[in-house]
Design brief:
The structure holds two protein chains of two kinds. Chain A is of the alpha/beta class. In chain A, 33% of the residues lie in helices and 30% in strands. In chain A, the strands form three sheets. Chain A has a six-stranded mixed β-sheet with strand order 6-9-10-3-11-12, with helices on both faces. In chain A, helix 5 packs parallel to helix 6. Chain A is globular, with a radius of gyration of 18 Å. By secondary structure, chain B is of the alpha/beta class. Chain B has two domains: 293 residues, no CATH class; 54 residues, no CATH class. Chain B has 13 helices and 23 strands. Chain B is globular, with a radius of gyration of 22 Å. The two termini of chain B are 24 Å apart. The chains are: A alpha/beta, B alpha/beta. At the A-B interface, helix 2, strand 7 and helix 3 of A face helix 11 and helix 12 of B.
């Protein structure tokens, strides 16, 4: 048996946003081939963790370290993290008026792969992924996220993820705002991306997406720390008992 | 120990080199002395063998120029810096006008090669009027245009060969007394284009002209007149690049458009003067019954641009549009806008203005919508969007509405925004560098303008913006 290959190692991570401390020492290791779910109430620090991992300039790391494939992730600028295979599917992707989806996708694929993809080849690849994700053709000529419905935005996020083939996929509340059909399609898209040499961290408030994606590991975040970890059963338990149940349990890591 | 440059510093150095900032050795057949006198005006007219009426027109305009005050609005500080006594008012590059490409002097050809003009010509030119200095040196008209009866020539030739048509229309849309700079142009004009489209003729290929300034302290005063006879259509394109020089250069053109009943004129400009040029241009169109005029106006270069393309809607159902963009970088002031004058019922107009200010640059929108009594059922829509790239840059909006009729629909919308941190973060999270991300956002902002350009121009504009963005992101 080979030893697990760590993709992401978060060690005692402390993060402040505009002077306010949000994360108080997060520890988490994600290995190749694993799917993790990070659950917790709104405001528990889940999105802060995802923004920090992607390098948002307003999220300041005050202590701790993050290793990505064994290297220091935090010293890299956002675009370099992306080119090295870190991907964040945004909860609220912003609109870029005047920039067509197809131009945007080509530019990002070029950046990630380090070379231009021939138009014909790119089209073919794109069309195949689009049909799998139930995305219609006119999507490509629309402006990025401009006037998109919640479901369309999430589909575009997953479409990008499929194109960019990340090593580490961070999905921030990808299930929110989706109806049941969209949730199913998007979940299938995510499942298709899980592979032995990459890893996925799903951030979610609700358990419902986990009906379609079965994570090997579930973590509960509260007040900026991971307070409980377990297998996929933990998600079901949370669904049945609510987050208050975790709060009443003694925390696994003592709060500093 | 050699200091290593950071990536940003290198980018800044690349960006600070003006792309077309090369220049030829001067080799001029005639160059007037500096400053403006009656003698110089007479000399210009004599050298061009002009008819008496044009000499009179010039001299009268010179009087107006001396009498007219400088504008008291816009950037008066920069305007008052112009030293009219230190400008060459006329320079002729070669004695003879080139008839075809082979006859164009080698040095000039080389310059045009670097600007990609011959290639553009091969692609889709109907005719080229390439203005080198104050005189047209190369000019060709494709045969089928000639067969259609379309006249596309430089203004000097038009005066010689089509004197009657010129005399009937010249200076009727913008009289010399209109403003100080129109008066100046009327006195010393040289070159520019003349287009005449006979009734019912549609010119399917855009007519293009290229302009360039090449002498230090040299003024360029071209004069363009486009006449679209009833039911005709023409698209005229003018794009320019200029070399960098140390002292200021004055560019003061006059462009007159006449769209007769049912005619349609589109006039596209991209100006990319080097950043020491004063670009003070008067552009005006008259649109008669059922006619349509569109100004598509891009301002990237120059030190100070003051330009407000105007459309006088003179007949029922005439329609006017101004679509403009302005890019104001360091030490630049783009004071641009539009003017719509509704003089007849059921006339409609659209103004869409977009500006970007960066590195302390300043962009102003200055616009007027005027509706005269009796012009009922007028519809006008004004939209101006400004994008600020940093805290040092500035954007102002001076919209004026003079509405003397009740039965009108006027819409006005103005926005000022900053390049969002969230937009940058989103694009960078997809692997784009900060420069690439900024360029993409800016190109998207200008997209409503860019999509109206022929492909070649759209590509060139996007490239210019990329250069501007690379200049100082960091």
């Amino acid at each position: 048996m080979t030893a697990p290959k760590p993709i992401l190692q978060i060690k005692d991570l402390h993060v402040a946003v505009e002077g306010k401390q949000i994360l108080h020492g997060v520890n988490l290791t994600v290995n190749a081939g694993e799917v993790h779910a990070l659950m917790g109430r709104n405001g528990s620090g889940k999105s802060t963790l995802s923004y920090t991992l992607m390098g948002h300039p307003r999220y300041k790391v005050t202590a701790g370290e993050v290793l990505y494939l064994g290297e220091d992730l935090l010293s890299l600028p956002t675009d370099e993290r992306s080119r090295k295979g870190v991907y964040l599917a945004f909860q609220y992707p912003v609109a870029i008026p005047g920039v067509s989806v197809s131009n945007f996708l080509r530019a990002s694929v070029k950046a990630r792969r380090g070379q231009d993809v021939p138009v014909k080849e790119f089209r073919k690849e794109l069309k195949a992924l689009m049909s799998r994700l139930g995305v219609v053709d006119d999507f490509l000529s629309r402006y990025v996220n401009d006037g998109f419905s919640g479901g369309e935005k999430k589909r575009l996020e997953i479409l990008q993820m499929a194109l960019l083939k990340p090593v580490l996929g961070l999905l921030d509340e990808t299930d929110s705002g989706l109806d049941i059909d969209a949730l199913k399609t998007v979940s299938e898209g995510i499942n298709a991306l899980a592979a032995p040499d990459n890893a996925i961290l799903l951030i979610t408030h609700y358990q419902r997406m986990l009906n379609y994606i079965t994570p090997g590991f579930v973590h509960v975040m509260q007040d900026g720390q991971i307070v409980k970890s377990g297998g996929s059963d933990l998600a079901k338990e949370l669904e049945a008992k609510g987050y208050d149940w975790v709060s009443r349990e003694p925390a696994s890591t003592a709060r500093a | 120990m050699a200091a290593e440059l950071t990536q940003d510093e290198m980018l800044r150095q690349v960006g600070s080199d003006y792309k077309y900032g090369f220049h030829d050795k001067e080799d001029y057949a005639f160059k007037s002395g500096r400053g403006l006198t009656r003698e110089i005006v007479e000399q210009i007219s004599k050298m061009k063998n002009e008819p008496e009426w044009m000499l009179k027109f010039r001299l009268k305009a010179l009087d107006h120029f001396h009498k007219k005050p400088m504008p008291t609005w816009g950037n008066t500080e920069l305007l008052n810096d112009i030293d009219f006594d230190n400008i060459y008012y006329y320079v002729r590059a070669t004695e003879k006008q080139g008839r075809n490409w082979d006859e164009v002097p080698e040095g000039i050809k080389k310059t045009f090669d670097r600007l990609g003009i011959p290639e553009a010509e091969r692609k889709f030119l109907a005719g080229v009027t390439a203005q080198y200095e104050s005189e047209v040196v190369y000019h060709s008209i494709r045969e089928d245009l000639g067969k259609q009866g379309v006249i596309f020539t430089d203004m000097d030739t038009a005066l010689r060969e089509h004197g009657d048509i010129v005399r009937k229309h010249f200076g009727t849309i913008i009289p010399p007394a209109d403003n100080k700079f129109a008066a100046l142009n009327s006195a010393v004009w040289s070159g520019g284009s003349f287009v005449f489209v006979p009734p019912g003729v549609r010119v399917e290929i855009p007519l293009q002209a290229y302009f360039r300034i090449n002498t230090e302290n040299m003024g360029q005063f071209e004069r363009t007149l486009i006449i679209a006879e009833p039911g005709s259509f023409v698209h005229y394109i003018e794009g320019c690049t200029a070399p960098v020089y140390s002292s200021d250069s004055l560019h003061s053109a006059v462009v007159e458009l006449i769209a007769k009943p049912g005619a349609h004129i589109r006039y596209t400009t991209i100006q990319n003067w080097s950043k020491n040029v004063y670009n003070l241009v008067t552009k005006r169109a008259m649109a008669f019954e059922d006619a349509k005029v569109e100004w598509v106006d891009g301002n990237i270069g120059s030190k100070l641009t003051m330009k407000y393309p105007s459309i006088y809607l003179m007949g029922p159902r005439a329609h006017g549009e101004v679509l403009s963009i302005a890019f104001a970088g360091s030490d630049q002031h783009q004071d641009a806008g539009a003017k719509m004058v509704h003089n007849a019922p059921d006339t409609t107009s659209i103004i869409c203005s977009k500006s970007i200010s960066k590195d302390g640059g300043r962009a102003s929108y200055r616009g007027l919508v005027k509706v005269y009594p009796g012009a009922t059922n007028v519809k006008s829509s004004v939209r101006c969007d400004a994008l600020l790239m940093d805290e040092q840059s500035r954007s102002d909006t001076y919209p004026t509405m003079e509405i003397d009729e009740k039965d009108v629909t006027i819409e006005h919308e103005a926005t000022v925004s900053k390049v969002g941190e969230e937009q940058l973060f989103y694009l960078m999270s997809r692997g784009l560098t900060q420069t690439e991300a900024t360029t993409m956002i800016v190109n998207g902002f200008f997209e409503p303008f860019t999509k109206e350009l022929p492909l070649e121009y759209a590509v060139e504009l996007n490239r210019l913006i990329q250069l501007e963005m690379e200049g100082s992101v960091g």
